[in-house]
Design brief:
CATH superfamily of the largest domain: Type I PLP-dependent aspartate aminotransferase-like (Major domain)
Helix content: 25-40%
Oligomer: single chain
Largest sheet: 7 strands, mixed
CATH class of the largest domain: Alpha Beta
Number of domains: 2
Strand content: 5-15%
Distance between the termini: 30 Å
Number of strands: 17
Radius of gyration: 22 Å
Length: 424
Amino acid sequence: MIDLFDDTYAATRDAADPLRDLRSEFLIPRHDGEPMAYFVGNSLGLQPRGARAYVEEVLRKWEEEGVEGHFTGDAQWMTYHDLVREPLARLVGAEPLEVVAMNTLTVNLHLLMASFYRPTAERPVLLIEAGAFPSDRHAAWSQVRFHGFDPRTDLVEVAPDAPDGTISMDAIARAIVAHRDRLALVLWPGVQYRTGQAFDLAEIARLARDAGAACGFDLAHAVGNVDLSLHDSGADFAVWCHYKYVNAGPGAVAGAFVHARHSRADLPRLAGWWGHDPSSRFRMEPEFVPAPGADGWQLSNPPILAMAPLRASLALFERAGMPALRAKSCSLTGYLEQLIDARLRGMLDVLTPRDPVQRGCQLSLRVHGGRDRGRSLFEFLAARGVLGDWREPDVIRISPTPLYNRHADVLRFARAVEAWSTAA
């Protein structure tokens, strides 16, 4: 009989991992002189070793060339965002024209809602999930008010309908049908931040279209985590950050997607100079002529120093490929689930769906006995170099990330939980 808690079992699985060498491409924080078991890629991904070289390249160019750095060499700043366009498009399943790295997530969300949330007296409703990440809810609430409507009636939140706090596709469909005559926009996460639940984005976009509404996605917890096919999904837009699973650093430049069918559409937007068609941008004329595709939603020139680490991380995604990363993710998270089922079920409840199709790297865990015991476990783990993520009121999120986590890390977590139980 296989002993899941045996060191040899975890080591054998790690030895057979075709992506095992990628771990050495990251700088792993240390605790008491040893590498941490770092399960917080869903909050801040680790630093790729190659990031420093890309940042220093920009600094050298600035030092040696000054303003001329905008126009010289393969990494000239004028077109720097083009360096990440194709790998980013492959990462999210889009055409290159449909994606751009720019701004930060909530800025991009507001910019794209300015174009795709266009409420009328007949159709004012913006639909989101109950318990959305606060930034999304604040943005949605403020957009409804900005347009002169009442968020108490026109911001509709779909409540969880499962005991574990997840939301079924039936619940989403019922909400869209119930509000179809008043619905302007469906704004939905790719992966729900608290529960770790992943959604069928193509089906949500289809339901929104059938109701005559626009559809956009917040992919903060989905990009670099689950397989995405944004173009084929038919969504109107999507936004995401790059500092979580995409490992581009704290406060990294974010990303946006606008479907190709809108690439030359005459849509209302909040315009900025860098969104102007580059072929005539420097004529400095007063009329705004949008660049084709997602570039037309840019406001200002790219933050080059903030974009440099993204190049390093995307190179690793290109090397590994999302299918292989997703396979390893399922193996790691599945192993975590097995360990919990084998010896930790008396201590932990798994809130994240059991079906791998409905989750990414993350398992959201609730500790038996209430918040104080949950917080006690979280602090016990951190004191032993096992770092997860706490979300109020009582959830510990553990996210084995396939680029740098191992089965041995997952086993270390499970053993630490057992040690806490004994000590408590």
